[in-house]
Amino acid sequence: MLSIITAFGCKYDCRGCIHWNISKVCYPTTFWQNPSWQKALAMNVGTEPFSVSGGGDPMNAFNDNVDFWHYLEALCQVSNLEYDVHTSYDEIFKLVKKEKKVEATVRLWHPDVNMRKNDKMTIFEFEHLRKVVFHLRNQYVSIPEIGNVETRFAYVVDDKATIDGLERLEKEIPERCKLSYRELVPCGEVKPPKPDVDEFARSVSERRAGAIYVEQKDYNKYLWPDGTIKTKFLS
Ligand code: SF4
């Protein structure tokens, strides 16, 4: 699967976040308007669903980047594609309707409060959204059911994870939702988990239907904002 790395920043400040490595390069948030990026996308997207993730949170400053989402939706319409969104923002899912077409009000996060007041409450439809992969930061966050859009919770297992904590998480996540534990991409001060916690996380499929452990080597192709394709997240 092709994964689009965005450069939209993030409102959170998680320790050891890969986002900061990307930010150092200062990609413009208009990267997707570059014809060479669009060409790289067209050449690598194939016919399978693709994902939108990374580089902070793709849902950050949603109203400022709504043209990017329109571009993706138009691409999906023309090429009969669907996409997954990787995010830690639950706000948008509080607004969606329980329909096949997911709708959300744009401009919700405009930095100027006056702009929010004057907002015309435009509706944007996530018409080709197939799956939400919701990245949990420290604890479980409830997000509503979104029509027939699959919800998968993803949790990176690091040195702060405990077996008790993972057990609690597995109980909190509703049956209808899937769960992935993810192998840590070493970054900054964050270290891998203790061996017993690591073993417990890797065996999650034995405890829960549809649950998986995602290893670093399981990752796929990444399209970076500069139009390059990488097969490792930080290669
Ligand atoms: S939510 Fe994700 S992108 Fe944002 S700071 Fe945390 S790890 Fe980084």
How would you portray this structure in words?
There is one protein chain. The protein is α/β, with parallel strands linked by helices and 235 residues long. The chain has a single domain, classed as TIM Barrel, CATH 3.20.20. It has helices at residues 19-23, 35-44, 66-79, 113-118, 163-172, 195-202, 204-207, and strands at residues 2-5, 50-53, 83-87, 102-105, 123-126, 129-135, 150-157, 178-183, 212-214, 221-223, 229-230. The strands form 2 sheets. Strands 9-8-7-6-3-2-1-10-11 form a 9-stranded mixed sheet. Strands 4-5 form a two-stranded antiparallel sheet. The chain binds iron/sulfur cluster (SF4).
Q: Short summary of the structure?
A:
This protein has 235 residues and is α/β, with parallel strands linked by helices. It is built from seven helices and eleven strands.
Key phrases:
24% helix, two-stranded antiparallel ribbon, alpha/beta, binds iron/sulfur cluster
What layout of secondary structure does this protein have?
Layout: E1 2-5, H1 19-23, H2 35-44, E2 50-53, H3 66-79, E3 83-87, E4 102-105, H4 113-118, E5 123-126, E6 129-135, E7 150-157, H5 163-172, E8 178-183, H6 195-202, H7 204-207, E9 212-214, E10 221-223, E11 229-230
Parallel strand pairs: 1-2, 1-10, 2-3, 3-6, 6-7, 7-8, 8-9
Antiparallel strand pairs: 4-5, 10-11
Bound molecules: iron/sulfur cluster.
Residues 10, 12-14, 17, 19, 56-57, 88, 135, 137 line the site of iron/sulfur cluster.
